[in-house]
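Subject: sequence -> structure tokens, single chain

Hey, anyone have a minute? Need the predicted structure for the following. Not urgent.
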Amino acid sequence: MWRYLGGANVVRGVDVLRVRDGRVAEKFGYVKT
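Reply:
Had a minute. Here:
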């Protein structure tokens, strides 16, 4: 999980990586403001 603080704005997000055979097969990003 990560959080970005920019002044009064707070952005929280989650990056989900699915790895298959040593490669990133899928990437899902979720951002909540």
